């Protein structure tokens, strides 16, 4: 099985993914890190030097590779992964893939991301928390139609890491 975690930037896909992989005794893969390692570049630099379209091509390519060749893996997707090309269809049509949407509300996303925005090329230029909230609000609205197609939706507002893990595990065992 491959457990694929989707959700907006800052929703904790990697943090939860690592914990979940430990509990399941699975390997943990972070799609951004796979791209970053293969391209020998940070995601921010990749956006700066090669542009977003290049990044999206690599994202689709490595997602395909992982789905083809891996098993017993927890995979943290990038925030945009299910929203481009046929990535979402690919994730949904494979019976070995279980998709989860870690759903966090706009105010919580915004306050988290304002502190962590510098590593994120799509929002690093936004300099007030108010403007960031406005941007994320629109972006999340556009992306929700993709995220909400995940097999399981976990509302994570106010939940501890342990609560989130238990909620995911409930669907897996
Ligand atoms: C992106 C999210 C990022 C990374 C890239 C684009 C997005 O991943 O893939 O900066 O389009 O939402 P995280 O969700 O892990 O921050």
UniProtKB/TrEMBL annotation:
It is found in: Cytoplasm. The keyword DNA damage does not apply. Substrate binds at residues 32, 56, 79, 143. It catalyses: shikimate + ATP = 3-phosphoshikimate + ADP + H(+). Gene3D superfamilies: P-loop containing nucleotide triphosphate hydrolases (3.40.50.300). Pathway: Metabolic intermediate biosynthesis; chorismate biosynthesis; chorismate from D-erythrose 4-phosphate and phosphoenolpyruvate: step 5/7. Its EC number is 2.7.1.71. Binds 1 Mg(2+) ion per subunit. Its cofactor is Mg(2+). GO terms for molecular function: kinase activity. SUPFAM superfamilies: P-loop containing nucleoside triphosphate hydrolases (SSF52540). It is an enzyme of class 2 (transferase). Its main location: cytoplasm. ATP binds at residues 10-15, 120. It holds the Pfam family SKI. Keywords: Amino-acid biosynthesis, Aromatic amino acid biosynthesis, ATP-binding, Cytoplasm, Kinase, Magnesium, Metal-binding, Nucleotide-binding, Transferase. Mg(2+) binds at residue 14. InterPro entries: P-loop_NTPase, Shikimate/glucono_kinase, Shikimate_kinase/TSH1. Monomer. Catalyzes the specific phosphorylation of the 3-hydroxyl group of shikimic acid using ATP as a cosubstrate. Belongs to the shikimate kinase family. This is Shikimate kinase. It comes from Winogradskyella aquimaris. The lineage of its organism: Bacteria, Pseudomonadati, Bacteroidota, Flavobacteriia, Flavobacteriales. The gene is aroK.
